[in-house]
Amino acid sequence: MDQVGTDVDLSTLERAVVNAFQGGFPVTERPWEPAAAALSERGVDVDAAELLATVRDLDERGVLSRFGALVNAEEIGGTATLVAMHAPEERYDEVAETVNGFREVAHNYEREHPHLNMWFVVSVASEDEVERVLADVEDATGQETYNLPKREEFHVGAKFLLDGPVSDGDLDLSQLGPEVEPSEERGITARERDLVVEIQGGLPITETPYGDVAEAIDQPVEWVIGTIKRFNEEGKVRRVGVIPNHYALGYSENGMTVWDVPDELLSEVGPAVASLGFVTHCYHRPRHEGVWPYNFFAMTHGRDEAESEHRIEQVRETMAEFWDVDDDEWDSLFSTRILKKTGIRLDERADAQVRSEDGEPTDA
């Protein structure tokens, strides 16, 4: 985990909120009371009403991307894949507009690379649809696509901690709320689907956020609270809390480092790189012979070029503990433009996974 300063003007309380609640926010009917009490125990004197108002203000100012449950789309169902493409310079904006026009494309970035300069994420209800979407993209753009699905996930997620109270970011109140039993059932029920779609963009920042969600989907609040808490334990929700806008905190350098790791070392290299607190994503992905020689991706963030380069060097030093890394065995691709960022659409993916309450598949 990183502890950093920030370019935005934040009060001591605001810094405490960002640090404390990037995960482990209470899933209880009135969560602000225990959250405020926990902050007060850490020396930040605040009551529930002031804490609620602070989170709402941070959200309205864009310091937060949102407040709520970070849904793990992969565990809900369907699939997402990373795709690389070359877009000719003279046609770049035209190609980007065409790619962005596909509703299955969730994110799209321009990245610095002599050939593969467009990187986008395709999110669909089933793996069978990936091939169809990529064929349609190729037909529409005249450009070849290179599918880079995740083979193994070593780490996803990072805490962007600020100078100030709760600087270790270890305040975890996820144990509060009802006792729940994780389910081994595959898929989700129809009402769980409604819950996922309702909360995917964030929770309402109100005195009773889970109660407001329950009212919106016409379900008992006890069921909503119990289901979100169970999803958190099952991995369908990665965490509940504030989701910082890292750009607002000054993290303008988004570096995707890629490595040609000897296959037999992946199982050792992956956890070692994932343990670096500033690495936000860490995956094994396939190579493409003659075009893309790299099989390991590690995403880093920095507030400026110098900080980014330092962190990339730390990744390289970690790699060097396992083998002699040549200059042609790695690269770093910085994003230069966000071309599209709509988030993963979960409604269709969730629809495809719906089962009945007794576990049987359903068309509902």
TrEMBL record:
It holds the Pfam family NirdL-like_HTH. Gene3D superfamilies: 1.10.10.2890, 3.30.70.3460. InterPro entries: AsnC_trans_reg2 (IPR040523), HTH-Siroheme_Decarb (IPR050684), NirdL-like_HTH (IPR053953). Residues 78-154, 249-340 form the Siroheme decarboxylase AsnC-like ligand binding domain. It is an enzyme of class 4 (lyase). Residues 14-64, 192-238 form the Siroheme decarboxylase NirL-like HTH domain. GO terms for molecular function: lyase activity. Its EC number is 4.1.1.111. It catalyses: siroheme + 2 H(+) = 12,18-didecarboxysiroheme + 2 CO2. Pathway: Porphyrin-containing compound metabolism. This is siroheme decarboxylase. Keywords: Lyase. Belongs to the Ahb/Nir family.
